[in-house]
Amino acid sequence: MLDIKYIRENSEEVKRGVADKQLDPKLVDVVLEADKKWREFLQKVEEFRKERNLAAKEKNIEKGKKIKGELQSLEIQLKKSEQQQKEALAKIPNIPSADVKVGKDESENEIVRKWGEPRKFDFGFKPFWQLGEELGIIDTERAAKVSGTRFFYLKDDGVLLDQSIVQFALETLTKEGFTPIIPPVLIKKEMMAGMGYLEHGGEEDMYVLLF
């Protein structure tokens, strides 16, 4: 998620980036308008809080009660406007790098570099799960009973191969100065929102835990 301060100061650049990703640049205007309303309510709330503190200092009970009621109403509006700002902000994608070619879809992607040439075979390809089942290292039938379709058990030499590849990758990256990390298996919804994941169909892939 982009920093709102960055959008305020670079709105035209952000609009171009949004347009380059085939989205409506007016999304940026929606964000700026929501941000403007939020800041207006924030200013009003801060002013009323000062008035409330002054009334308390003066021991003006009647004035304090009046300010308290108005302040509560403003704080509700402030919270609502903040939520609207966040929802609008979540729809803004990350801005592509200046050296990225603009295209309408993946068909216009540009090959930057490649190594070797694709091998050609005189037979049809098999999907990996079919090969795995034939080799005895994948079991989709039993996995479907436990987890549903599109899942499989990896077993025997398949497990050893999988772990060997992971270990090789860890050793290679560690030598390059990277720090190995195993993150928690769960993540808070607001963290997913911050990554721009939920606004683009991410909720369809979520597994929700109820406590």
TrEMBL record:
<dbReference type="GO" id="GO:0004828">
    <property type="term" value="F:serine-tRNA ligase activity"/>
</dbReference>
<dbReference type="GO" id="GO:0006434">
    <property type="term" value="P:seryl-tRNA aminoacylation"/>
</dbReference>
<dbReference type="InterPro" id="IPR045864">
    <property type="entry name" value="aa-tRNA-synth_II/BPL/LPL"/>
</dbReference>
<dbReference type="InterPro" id="IPR002317">
    <property type="entry name" value="Ser-tRNA-ligase_type_1"/>
</dbReference>
<dbReference type="InterPro" id="IPR042103">
    <property type="entry name" value="SerRS_1_N_sf"/>
</dbReference>
<dbReference type="Pfam" id="PF02403">
    <property type="entry name" value="Seryl_tRNA_N"/>
</dbReference>
<dbReference type="GO" id="GO:0005524">
    <property type="term" value="F:ATP binding"/>
</dbReference>
<keyword id="KW-0436">Ligase</keyword>
<keyword id="KW-0175">Coiled coil</keyword>
<dbReference type="InterPro" id="IPR015866">
    <property type="entry name" value="Ser-tRNA-synth_1_N"/>
</dbReference>
<feature type="coiled-coil region">
    <location>
        <begin position="64"/>
        <end position="91"/>
    </location>
</feature>
<feature type="domain" description="Serine-tRNA synthetase type1 N-terminal">
    <location>
        <begin position="1"/>
        <end position="96"/>
    </location>
</feature>
<protein>
    <submittedName>
        <fullName>Serine-tRNA ligase</fullName>
    </submittedName>
</protein>
<dbReference type="InterPro" id="IPR010978">
    <property type="entry name" value="tRNA-bd_arm"/>
</dbReference>
